[in-house]
Design a protein that fits this description.
The complex is a heterotrimer of chains A (393), B (95) and C (361).
Chain A lengths: L5 E10 L5 H10 L18 E2 L14 H16 L11 E6 L9 H10 L5 H8 L2 H8 L6 E4 L5 H14 L5 E8 L3 H9 L20 E2 L1 E9 H6 L6 E10 L12 H14 L6 E5 L6 H15 L4 E3 L2 H4 L6 H15 L1 E2 L21 E2 L4 E8 L3 E9 L4
Parallel strand pairs in A: 2-6, 3-4, 3-5, 9-10, 9-13
Antiparallel strand pairs in A: 1-7, 5-7, 8-14, 11-12, 13-14
Helix pairs in contact in A: 6-12, 9-10
Chain B lengths: L1 H22 L25 H15 L16 H15 L1
Chain C lengths: L1 E9 L2 E2 L1 H10 L5 E4 L7 E4 L21 H17 L9 E7 L4 H14 L6 H7 L3 H10 L5 E5 L4 H14 L5 E8 L3 H10 L23 E8 L8 E8 L11 E4 L9 H5 L7 E2 L2 H4 L6 H14 L1 E2 L18 E2 L4 E7 L5 E7 L7
Parallel strand pairs in C: 5-6, 5-7, 10-11, 10-14
Antiparallel strand pairs in C: 1-2, 1-8, 1-9, 3-4, 7-8, 9-15, 12-13, 14-15
Classes of the chains: A alpha/beta (393), B mainly alpha (95), C alpha/beta (361).
């Protein structure tokens, strides 16, 4: 039995790979990697990053880059779903993941306080009014639940999982879910110190991978009950069938070497969806290109799906967008199911003998109807989403 | 010369032990509890991957040493002995 | 949804017994500390004593953790201990942590690193601890929990959404138990923000029924609850319903209202309109301080009342609006309690707590 009554009627995405979904898919198709030096702030660190270079012209809130990124993706998803940007007539839940927007980490504010014992409250007010989900919820005048998920790198995936629970239990009829994060100095320095940032362009699952590249962006989907969509005359073949998560209970920063947490999360998502591993057509892997992540993830995917599974990491196009990653990759997974192709897992060249799976090396046609997107987070969170496409009768 | 080196090495070891205890929050451990040839990671002192990158920062901040490519420097990070020798040699080369 | 166990750590001390004792004893003077932005003046705070977060055994795997995570792990482990169910399969336990400000103290320590040592020399450990979900990670590691784990943030209703989601997880059989709770830490910068935007209670007294003007004293701590659809002899009470955003009807007449007034809103008049003369009202913020996720501590007080069948008198009894406030602590039947919180936009979230029933839930 496949549960297909929670459908996806809108997709929105922004990252270095493009300001919207069509632009992004074009980058995928051409194998474009828009990485470069940091331009958003002065820095002494030279790691390449994936920045969003230009914003669409529209009035978005000043000084809150994560919110701007989120709102751009939300706008695209709403438009795709043929909804206006005010939704007071519906019960809309908003669940978004982030890392940066949840913290008051304004360096100028803090330096002023530290040096002079006083500081401007402008960054504080921005922070207090800028809780990601609350902000979006107020903007669209939603009457449903709103919640910001701060589960580090699996935040976007977990946020979509929360939305699934809300929709399945009648807490809302429509949900805006995904994640958003800006490139920010604090995680940039932090990940640098953790020694997991690559000095070159990242190479997920490759033998010679040297770490991740940071990126920024937002990925948002409009998810609703079939009943809600029918009522307003909308339709979609795409559906969200399952979500699973499990924790490692192992270490603050390192993934559990045996991958048991990730395996449990994937099995839970499969069970929730009521499908078998063979029915998964491809996996949009977390694939950060750190030595640890890729080996743990690759082995877990091999154990569940065997050696032939099509896997890819899209981090070679977007960088690791932290709290946004799960949202962005969920959007990519759905677009791939809709359009019938996945891009080359860019950055990969040589098989790692320690990883029993090899990602796809060229643009590949897919013709199945179910796909998996995985996230492994700092702190030992593992999360998995399963999406499907209803085949035409 | 040799004697000076020996003294300096002993100093570095002492400093390293104190820094490790403080910056890695090694509770209930005194510098005397850490033997110079004890394995820092795994079975010995029980340090882990997060401690390893913290030691990199300790070396940067306190000795001006930049350690890149941690994966291939396991010999350096083996014990207080190896770490102190590395500090001594590279401080010299650097200055 | 049954509450099988609770764990609290606050300025009142560590564990349910100390919290109960504080509720019995009423208002206590907060501690006073020097803060840099108030020269020559001490400032009140309800702070957790460090000796309460120094259990060697529990912290074996968390020598690197900050105070926020330590408080949370203490409260979470107390909730387990309180339930008497420590030996269940930990793969069936989920964790949901709600926090408003997360590890802000550690975040500012990280900014110190950037300012003092430069971008290339920040401590990876401090960075790791500054991430919001470090708290849940430590709980998972310290207690061996391997079910789903989620950290959520919202400034006013994060505990309510966390609780609501716990129920969904149980209904969907994602897990059999959820350890759900809050953690907030006091910090110097937060104190500066509170004092700049709000009025500090210079005399050390939060007056929950003043409504306008209001007075705050920052607090800190953690409160965790082990919830399940399962029953046990130790059940404290039940989460009957969680209503967020108004609109829906509550489950009937209540015996007591608990309100979250604590001076974090400059104007708390909106609470008065939600109260009825027929229902006595209480607020316990004067024992644990002004905390963005203080609802969890007020709920903990409500749970103890339902379990012990006691009505704890208000710790501060100033009553300028002539409300029907609970004056003295006395025994008496308590069946249903309503815990009310408002946000700065005038919207509310309500938790109903009901006395445990003898029949299986």
């Amino acid at each position: 039995m496949i549960t297909d009554n929670i459908i996806i009627t809108g997709l929105g995405v922004i990252s270095a790979a493009g300001n919207n979904l069509p632009e992004t898919l074009d980058s995928f198709s051409r194998g474009k990697r828009n990485a470069g030096k940091v331009s958003l702030f002065d820095t002494s660190l030279s790691y390449p990053v994936f920045e969003v270079k230009t914003f669409p012209e529209k009035n978005y809130p000043e000084g809150q880059r994560t919110l701007r990124l989120a709102l751009i993706a939300v706008d695209e998803a709403l438009k795709d779903a043929q909804l206006e940007d005010e939704l007071s007539e519906y019960r809309v839940g908003v669940c978004l993941g982030t890392t940066v927007a949840s913290q008051l980490n304004d360096l100028d504010f803090y330096k002023s306080y530290r040096d002079h014992g006083s500081a401007s409250m402008v960054p504080v007010d921005r922070y207090l009014k800028g809780n990601l989900a609350e902000f979006v919820s107020r903007k669209i005048k939603s009457k449903g639940p709103s919640l910001t998920v701060v589960n580090a790198c699996s935040s976007g995936t977990d946020a979509i999982g929360v939305a699934l629970s809300w929709l399945n239990n009648g807490l809302c009829d429509i949900a805006i879910a995904g994640g958003a994060d800006e490139l920010n100095r604090v995680p940039f320095c932090g990940f640098g110190s953790l020694g997991i940032v690559s000095p070159d362009l990242c190479a997920p699952f490759d033998r010679d991978r040297r770490g991740l590249n940071l990126g920024e962006g937002a990925g948002v989907m409009l998810i609703e009950t079939k009943g809600s969509a029918e009522k307003r005359g909308a339709a979609s073949d795409l559906y969200l069938s399952g979500y699973g998560s499990a924790s490692d209970s192992y270490h603050l920063t390192a993934p559990r070497p045996d991958g048991a947490g990730l395996e449990a999360a994937i099995h839970k998502a499969l069970a929730y969806s009521g499908i078998r591993p063979q029915e998964i057509n491809f996996v949009n892997a977390h694939g950060t290109a750190t030595p640890d992540n890729d080996v743990v993830e690759g082995r877990a995917l091999h154990r569940i799906f065997g050696p032939g599974v099509k896997i890819l990491s899209t981090k070679g196009y977007t960088g690791h967008t932290l709290g946004a990653a799960g949202g962005i990759e969920a959007v990519f997974t759905c677009a791939a199911l809709r359009d019938g192709w996945i891009p080359a897992s860019i950055g990969f060249a040589n098989k790692d003998e320690n990883i029993p799976v090899v990602p796809v090396m060229e643009k590949t046609t897919i013709n199945g109807c179910c796909a998996l997107s995985t996230s492994l987070a700092f702190g030992g969170n593992n999360a998995a989403l399963i999406f499907g496409r209803r085949l035409k009768a | 010369m040799q004697k000076n080196n020996g003294q300096e090495l002993a100093e570095i070891k002492k400093t390293l032990k104190n820094l490790l205890i403080k910056d890695l929050s090694l509770e209930d451990i005194t510098p005397d509890d850490i033997r110079d040839d004890d394995a820092l990671f795994g079975e010995g002192l029980g340090l882990d991957s997060l401690d390893a990158v913290e030691i990199v920062v300790i070396l940067q901040r306190n000795f001006g040493l930049e350690v890149k490519d941690l994966e291939n420097r396991k010999d350096v990070f083996y014990s207080i002995d190896t770490l102190a020798k590395y500090v001594l040699e590279n401080k010299k080369n650097g200055s | 949804m049954n509450i099988l166990g609770m764990g609290v750590i606050s300025a009142c001390g560590r564990g349910v017994d100390y919290f109960e004792k504080a509720l019995n004893e009423g208002w206590k003077k907060p501690s006073e500390i020097e803060v840099p932005h108030l020269k020559n003046r001490k400032s009140p705070v309800y702070q957790v004593d460090l000796k309460d977060v120094s259990e060697k055994n529990l912290f074996k795997k968390m020598r690197r953790s900050d105070k926020l995570s330590k408080m949370a792990v203490v409260a979470a482990s107390e909730a387990f201990r309180n339930s008497g169910l420590e030996n269940m399969d930990k793969r069936t336990v989920g964790i949901i942590v709600a926090t408003a400000f997360g590890a802000h103290v550690t975040t500012f320590n990280l900014l110190d690193d950037i300012l003092d040592h430069g971008e290339a020399e920040v401590s990876p450990t401090v960075f790791s601890n500054s991430v919001h979900n470090a708290v849940a990670s430590y709980i998972s590691s310290a207690l061996g929990i391997r079910g789903p784990s989620l950290t959520v943030t919202q400034f006013y209703f994060s505990f309510h959404y966390a609780l609501q989601l716990s129920r969904l997880w149980l209904d969907e059989e994602r897990c059999d138990y959820v350890l759900v709770g809050v953690a907030e830490q006091y910090g110097e910068v937060l104190r500066y923000i509170y004092d700049t935007k709000l009025t500090m209670a210079g005399d050390g007294i939060i007056r929950p029924f003043n409504f306008k003007p209001t007075y705050q004293i920052p607090g800190e701590g953690a409160a965790f609850f082990l919830v399940s659809k399962r029953n046990s002899d130790n059940v404290l009470c039940k989460f009957e319903n969680i209503l967020i955003g108004g609109g829906a009807e509550g489950p009937g007449p209540v015996d007591l209202d608990i309100i979250d007034t604590d001076g974090i809103l400059a104007d708390e008049s909106v609470y008065e309109r939600s109260l009825s003369k027929d229902v006595p009202v209480a607020a316990y913020s004067p024992v644990f301080g002004s905390v963005m996720t203080g609802s969890a501590f007020n709920c903990a007080a409500g749970m103890l009342m339902l379990k012990n069948q006691i009505r704890y008198g208000n710790p501060v009894k100033d009553n300028p609006h002539g409300l029907n406030i609970l004056n003295d602590t006395r025994n008496g039947p308590v069946e249903l309690i309503r815990c009310i919180r408002y946000n700065c936009y005038g919207s509310n979230a309500v938790i109903y707590l009901r006395k445990k029933s003898l029949a299986n839930d």
